[in-house]
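re: that chain from earlier
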Amino acid sequence: MRGMSEPSARTSVTADVRMRGFAQRTPVAEVFRWLDEHISALEPEYVALHDAVGRILAEDVASPLDVPSFDRAMMDGFALRGAATQGASTYTPVKLRVLGEVTPGQAYEGELASGEAVAIMTGAPLPPGADAVLPAELAQCHGDELLVLGEVSPGTHVGVRGEDIAAGGTILASGRRLRPQDLGVLASVGLPQVPVVRQPRVRIVVTGNELLPAGSKPQPFRVFDANGPMLKALVERDGGQVTLDDIVPDDPRQLLVPLQDPDADVVLIAGGSSIGTEDHAPRLLAELGELAVHGVAMRPGSPTGLGRIGGCLVMLLPGNPVACLCAYDFFAGRAIRTLAGRSRHWPYHSLRLPLRRHVVSALGRLDYVRVVIDDGEVEPITGTGAGGLSSTTRASGFILIPEDCESYPTGHEVEVHLYDAD
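^ sequence. v structure.
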C-alpha cells in the first residue's frame, strides 16, 4: 500500500493485557501524530468522467484546448462588422445585405465585407470578417435586405476563443473533491477520464459471540450488531470501498484471514479490542505485525488499538457502539480520509455556543461529550461514557473536553461539532 510507510524496527506495545488492564493509555495527540507520520494519500488511478463525482483529484488538470475553441455568437441575430452600424436607429436605419445563414456546428464559407451580414444562431461560429452580433430585435429583414435599427460595437455578443478556458492552463487543482459542475468543465475540454486518488479498500470485521446480524430472529441473551452497518456508512462517507464480513465469533483462528488480507489497505476490527479473556485482536496484531497503540486516554473509546501488518493499517475498535463511533471518528476516519486524499480533519461543521450547565471530566483524559442544542444553548446529554447508541441520534453533535481540563462551567462557550451537515 503506497499510502502507508513501511514498518520500522519500533517494538510493539505490550500485546497481551487480558485481565491485567492497560499499563498506560496513549494521549490522543500522540495517536494523531503516529497516524499522520505513517499515512499518506494512495496512488492515482484513472476513472471515467461519469464515475468521478466525489473523488479527489490526484494531479492538476490542464486544458488541452481553448474553450470556446472559436469565436462564436452569444445570441440569435446577424453577424456583421460593428463599424457598419454606426448611427443606426429606428429613425435612421442602416441598410445591409444579407448573404445567408450560419447555424451551430457549421462554418460560413467566405468573408464578410463592410455592408454585409449573415443571419446567425447562438453558438454558431462567427464568420470571417465579422466582429459583432446584432440582436434580432434590433433588425428587420426583408429578403436579402437588412435594416439595422441600433448600433453595436465590435465584440458585442461575441464569445471570444479561449475566454472561458485557455489551452494549457490549469482548470482544476490537485486535491480538489470533484463536484458535478467540475465534471461539466472537464467534459467541456473533451476529457473522457480523470486522475483521482485511489479509494482505500477497507475490510470491516465485527466480532462477538453475542452478536446477531440485523434482521435475524431475536435470541435470548444475544444482541443485534449495530457496528457493522454504522462502520460501513462511515467508511463510505470518508471515501473508502467497503468489504463487510459476516460476524466473526470470538475465535482467534477466524481473525487470521481478515488480518492477513493481501488486498486490504485498512482492516477495521470492531470488538475484541479490550482486556477480556476473549479479546484476541491486540495479541494477534502484535504477533503478525506491529501493535503501535493499545489503550487511548479518552472516553469513550479507551480500548482502541492500532498498528500495521506489512502495508496494511489495522484499527482495533471497541465493541460498544458509541465507543466504536468515537474511536472511528477520531482515528480510523482520519486515516481513511487521508488515504483517500481528503482532509484528515472531521467532516463536521462546528459553531460556538454557551453551555446551559456545567460538565466535568478527569485530568489526563479527553472526553467526547454528546450534546443537544436548545434555544442557542448547549445541553450535555446525561451520562458521558459509552452509554447507549440512541444518545447519538438524540444529540445535535459533540464537544471535547481536553486532557488538561477538569470541567467547563455553566455559560462557558464551547465548540460544538455538528453531526448533521446542514
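The domain at 47-67+163-197 is CATH 3.90.105.10 (Molybdopterin biosynthesis moea protein, domain 2).
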